[in-house]
Structures are given as C-alpha cells and as structure tokens.
Amino acid sequence: MAISAFFFSIMGLLVKVAGERLPSQEIVFFRSLLVLIFAWWMLKRAGVNPWGNNKKWLVVRGFTGFMALSCFYYGVTHLPLADATLIMYSNPVFTALLAAVFLGERLKKVDLLGVVLSLGGVVLIAQPSFIFGGASRLDPFDVGVALAGAVFAAISYVIVRKLRESEHALVVVFYFPLIATPASIPTALPDAIIPTWWELGVLLAIGIVTHIAQVAMTKGLHLEEAGRATAVSYLQVVFAFVWGMFFFDEFPTVLSVIGALLIVGSTIAIALYQQKAAKDT
Asked: Under the phi-then-psi rule, with left for phi > 0, alpha for psi from -120 to 50, and beta for the rest, what region is 128?
C-alpha cells in the first residue's frame, strides 16, 4: 500500500505539471485512453469477457468514475496539490452515508461523526470568507468541484460494492475508461491544446504510474487488513504535501494542517472501526 500511495502521489504531481498549460479535461482524456488500453490488455490476458452482465450499472459506474476523475483533476490543477488530494480523500465518509441509503448497510454513530469531522476539515482547508472573514484562502468554486469529486467517487465505490457479486473485478475496471474516454472528448475539445513532446511524455507517464499504483493497491488490499491498508494509503497525502512544497511553493497554514488531520483521522477511524466490527461478527 505504501508503494501504491507513492505512485498515486506521483500521478497527482504529474497532473499538476501537465495542468500548468493543458486543460484538465484533456489530461482526463489521455489518461483514460491509456488506462483503457491497459485494461483491455489485462482482460484479454485473463480470458475474461469484457462486457460483463449488469451493463446498466457498469455504465453508471463508468460515468460516476469519469465525473470523479474530472473533478479531481480540476481540483489538482486549480488548488494546492495537498488540499485537492485531501478533499478527494474525504470520500470514505460519503461512501458510508450512501451505502446506508442504497445498500441498506447500517449507519453508525462513528460514520456520522466522520462526516462532520471531514466536512469541518474541508472548511478549515478552504477557510471561506463568510466564516473567517477577509478573502477566502481557496476559491469556493474550486473547492466545491473537488468536493463533488469526492461525492462522485463515493457513488462509484457504492456501485462497485453492488457489482462485486455479479462482475469480474477487471470488467468493473474496464468500464471506467471505456466510458471516460469518449465522455471526455466533448469537454476537452473546446479548450484543447496540442501537447508538446515533453507534455506527451508527462501524459504517458500519468497513464503508466496510474496503472502501477492500481496494481500495487490491489496487491496491498490482498496482503493487508482493510483498516491498516486504508491508514497506509494516506501516505499519499504526506507525499502530496512534500511535492507541493518542493515543486510549487505550496506551504500549508496551521488551520489547513488541522483540517488535514481531521479528514485523515476521521476516515482512518471509520476504516478501523469497520474492520473491528467485521471481526466481531
């Protein structure tokens, strides 16, 4: 999981670099196209039927994944790297809420507390003017888009839970770029910029490190208990802080660090609590 966190943080760093000139939706398109090629190759290698059984929900999962990715990449290119990463990582608390509504999973007090603490963490990171006075630390619209990405990611995870009984994991992975690649074309074309050779190299690297990170995450989830794996995955946030300070002069404030601790602490607590509850049943 530590290797996965490192490569996911490198992905965020590369998206930030590419986004200095390229629109975020253009980055989404290239990333989706590359992952689509990787996913198709893995399906063929495994001899799995790529089209699955529950096509309706597979398409919906692909669309929500596309929306989550689009919002996250927008956040990375418009917000400090660590802040965008942290806001996206608030998605587990929304997953708990949505799983209770749509899957009938029991919503516990720790889940509700996690929602409150995570949203409080987002407020401390954004420091909106209507609460703190003066100018907002971050653009409220940019924060809203990043937070929407966390919600769409949570919806995707809930759908994945619904699909895991009927679909091969590789099929679920395949439908994400299968939908995201064509869906990103109309949103990328209006502001499209022809990449330089350097930028094409960065875009290729984004696809490669994303694939490595996903493979490492899959292996990590098989080797580690879920709660511990979740905790280790938050090393990505630490890496994001380091990359932001080193490459982009993005230094956190005291309040944003407190907000980060609230988000990380609440989501790890939920994961560990769920792991303990699963052992007790």
From this structure: beta
Distance (Å, whole) CA 30 – CA 180: 10
Residue range 17-72, pLDDT digits in tens: 999 999 999 999 999 999 999 999 999 999 999 998 899 999 999 999 999 999 99
* Residues 171-206 as b or e (16 or more Cβ within 10 Å = b): bbbbbbbbbbbebbeebbeeeeeebeeebeebbebb
Q: Residue 71 corresponds to which tokens in the numbers above? A: 């919002």
Please calculate the CA angle 274-268-172 and round it to the nearest 5 degrees: 70
Strand ranges inside the chain, DSSP E: none
Instruction: State the Cα–Cα distance between residues 13 and 49, nearest whole angstrom.
Output: 35
Domain interval for residue 182: 2-280
SS3 250: coil
User: What is the model's pLDDT at position 8?
Assistant: 87
- Structural domains of the chain, count: 1
Tokens 């699909």 sit on residue: 163
**Cα distances (angstroms) measured from residue 166 to each of 58, 76, 131:** 11, 34, 47
Residue type, 95: T
Cβ neighbors of 228 (< 8 A, separation 6 or more) are: 275
95-122 average pLDDT score: 80
Q: With beta carbons less than 8 A apart as the criterion, state whether 45 and 275 touch.
A: no
**Whole-angstrom Cα distance, residue 208 to residue 247?**
21
